[in-house]
Amino acid sequence: MRPFLYDRATSADLAASALATSADAPLVQGRVDAEYLAGGTTLLDLMKLDVMQPARVTDITVLDARHGTITVTDAGLKLGALVKMSAAADHPEIVARYPVLAQSLTLAASAQLRNMATLGGNVLQRTRCNYFRDTSWSACNKRNPGSGCAALDGVNRQHAVLGASEACIATYPGDFAQALMALDATVDIVGAAGPRTIPFAALHRLPGSTPHVETTLAAGDLITGLSVPPGPWTRRSLYLKIRDRQSYEFALASAAVALDLQGGVVRQARIALGGVATTPWRARDAEAALAGKPINEATAADAARIAFAGSKPREHNAYKVALGQRTVVRALLQAATLED
Amino acid sequence: MADAVFSTLVEAPAPKSNMGEPVPRYDARAKVTGSALYASDVALPDVAYAFLVTSAIAKGRVRSFDLREARALPGVLDILTHGNIGDAIRPVKFFTEGGPASNSVLPLGSPEIAYGGQTIAVVLANSYEVARDAAHRVLVDYEIDRPSATFASPGAVDQELATQNKKHDDPKVGDFAGAYASSPVTVDVSYSTPAQHHNPIELFATQCSWTGAQLTVHEPSQNVYGIKNGLAAQLGIEPSQIRVVSPYVGGAFGSKGGLTQRTALVAVAARKLGRPVKLVPTREQGFTVATYRSETKHRVRLGASRDGRLQALSHDGFEVTSRPDPYAVAGTDASTRMYACPNIASSVTIVRADRSTPGFMRAPAETPYFFALESAMDELAVALAMDPVELRRVNDTMKDPIKGLPYTSRALIPCFDRAAEAFGWAKRDARPGSMRDADWLVGWGCATSAYPTQMAAASARVSLFPDGTARVETAGHEIGNGLYTVAAQVAAERLGLPVGRVTVLLGDTDLPPAPVAGGSISTASVCSVIAQACDAIRARLSDGTTPTGDLVAALKERGMGSVQEYAEWVPHGAPKGAMGMLYRGAAQPTGGAKLQDRIQFAFGAQFVEVRVHARTREIRVPRIVGAFASGRIMNTRTAHSQYMGGMIWGIGSALHEETEIDANAARYVNTNLADYLVPVNADVVDVEVIMVPEEDSQVNPLGIKGIGEIGIVGTSAAVANAVYHATGQRLRDLPLRIDTLVTGA
Ligand SMILES: Cc1cc2nc3c(=O)[nH]c(=O)nc-3n(C[C@H](O)[C@H](O)[C@H](O)COP(=O)(O)OP(=O)(O)OC[C@H]3O[C@@H](n4cnc5c(N)ncnc54)[C@H](O)[C@@H]3O)c2cc1C
Ligand code: SF4
Questions:
Q1: Could you list the active site residues of B?
Q2: Whether ipTM exceeds 0.90
Q3: Does a cis peptide bond (omega within 30 degrees of 0) precede residue B735?
């Protein structure tokens, strides 16, 4: 860990402007010279590993009075960016009305981490690719643009089969983002030019040839909250996470599923995939294939096949195509049997 | 030092025949309250901090360092490299070649790189943070050669172990080839196990401080006399100038048994700076600072008559080791001796790659070799359409099939019977995939556990005082094995005192030497010598007149201030000069299959239930039952915890653990505990340990066999056999992974 300047935000706007006016305005995440500090469970780890070297760290935990609340109304769900993962996971209204959100949080990390980590930090957590997290590996385009990708022909059991490029195949590791994707959430941001709201689906970027640019946030942008619109599908939703051990592990494959069924027929299906893609991943073609059909073994398998149609497996992660499909089928069949 | 809290919370098994009392752990309160000081907790005045710079390549050499930025940081004191350390550290030999080293690469000895993660520089600074920051700023220019990572990598060299280690002899008897060819039922199968790292929670810390020419080393160790003597040779000083202190070890499992490169480096740094130096390598660095279990491959061929009797057994093992050191575990020594069989062949091949030298890890030989043997036995049972327990029964033996020597005791079948009954094995439907619970496929499997009963020379001093207290002093090691507790118990028993009146001092080279805490030898060796010292006290105080009397009363009667006895104990079959070797830190464990007149092993049987999700195929282990017979059990509480810990590790070894190796770089990839998986609580549901009473008066006077390692042996095979039973898919490569189950390969 390198020395850095530490300061504390006093309000969202102040934090944003302090960062935007810093002398060497950062251009890319991970190589920027200023970072917000929320729970610190991603940031401090990566600073100790020398992967992230911000010159300035702005503590935003003091903003939780303003951005740390949960509001559930008929108009939907509002989550402050500084809400702790555990608080959202255990919120009775979220558990009852948005089970996919609660489950994706409960099944993530460990109790200690969930008590520290915030929702804003959670959606910005960085990949677990070991070549990225250990600076002694010289080839990593995400950490060191243009240096290559050690994972392409390396140990890539954890890596993505969807959304990967020749420059980077790192998996987006989080769980909660999948649930937000499936529910068409939006993100509230305060930037240098003031507040704005964007679809959650527009927050993360595919690696393409610039895997070091992970989001569409500009330098200094502060996430203040997340909003989830209501819908008939939010109750009939679940998060299924498959992993090698029972707890405390990132997903090998996961599915966030929400269904609006009428008379056993799909009016709307929402499917987002985790553990298999480079970004939070919405399987829209698969959803479309289910519209107007009942959920059964055949339709679910068909949707799963479509969801993975574009997958590009590498040496050690080919199993994720089969596993991901099975995960989607299981999640759909299970969601279909949930009580209204 | 009874621990009231624990004794009420933890229900320990009731004492049974030949079972010691479940006395609470001597060190429980100190550990739970944090008052136990581990090596890195010891606060040395004016300490400087070391941070290692390790090699990013596995083969090649350091062309140059650029240390300017690192040295410029305020607080940086020095940076040791091969270029400036001079000849401060002398070469010593690898331990199978008569030396003390667990890795014979000379620390900072040259610019040459022998393995990824090799220490190439040591940054010294006034604080840990500055040392770490500076280490990250060290720039290294490497000349990179293409390394060989593992089996079948270009450049990896295969060698028969017998040509590299003169002590190794491949067990064989009869005519395997002929008997195999004429066996009506055969299996010929190959297995593999991955590289694994111990990852004890306590990191590989070392602190060194010099007082004049005297050096004190605080380092968690399973072999304090080994460190003392080996380090003296490296530094070119007398062993008497070195004291190694290690009263508590926060997990070791073999990783803290050897002399690693770090100790000499920290000692040299402390001498150079003229102040104490503290090193706590990171979790990542621990993967190459210490040793590991290397990956293995196996070919097992079994031939049987239709009634299941083995006619032919062959086990060929392949193990990865480093270029310089011929480390091998050679588990064929045990795997060829488990069952009655007239025709046996075996071989061990080591494969040299550009890797760090492997080392001991819990049941080093038996863990991988019994995965192969016991999986193959299950495959044979399937081929014979025979119950796997029956297959073990018809092939049970009371003598070593290789040399014909008698087992001192062997309760394999009683273990199978007790465990099978507790597990409910009789209700098993043998057809694969036949037992199902809703969406989960249920499978039941079993396997044999065994571990050689070994001991080594040991010494101890016991003192008895008129206030009715006693003190035991021996440089044995408390690595979670419960040695403090059983040492106090044996002294209390022999001296006729309550256990709470006995003080035990361990883990310090100022104490009389005890052997390495490895090979499950500690309890048997150390308790034997303590008993001997206590008996000498009794003899001195009784003068033949009061042989069973109250020793404290006798002491007071004589008006003595204390009575103290030092004893040396040498086990059956120990080499000549065993005591001298003990003092030189090189005690050789003896026993198992190494004796000329008999063979001695502990046995067990493990039964596992797995559940495999019918669709997504994740594997879970809701239930495991193990029954073990290991002679006298000194303390059923600490024994229970040893067995259970072994079995839980066995679950991890079967399903979770694997050190991933980058095939191009020959380096470890998942060097952290988020990606190197071990079981979490949710993976360990119901573990039942059964201690089968057994008496063995031959192994040592107390009848102790040693239980530290047997619990992990065979577990992975039992899990794999259960997965086969659940799914019909035979997984022959550890860890057993969803990857294979979902793709149906
Ligand atoms: C061992 C381990 C296991 C884990 N397992 C899982 C798992 O199974 N599933 C899972 O989903 N996650 C898992 N995680 C990841 C964990 O959920 C994230 O680390 C956590 O959610 C990050 O939140 P934080 O508040 O600590 O973020 P921080 O570390 O404080 O911040 C992360 C990043 O986001 C930026 N940031 C934070 N808040 C804002 C904001 N409001 N606006 C703009 N930028 C912001 C920071 O500058 C930083 O770059 C695991 C983590 C660990 C260490
Ligand atoms: S997959 Fe991405 S993060 Fe991993 S090494 Fe390649 S470029 Fe770096």
A1: 709
A2: yes
A3: yes
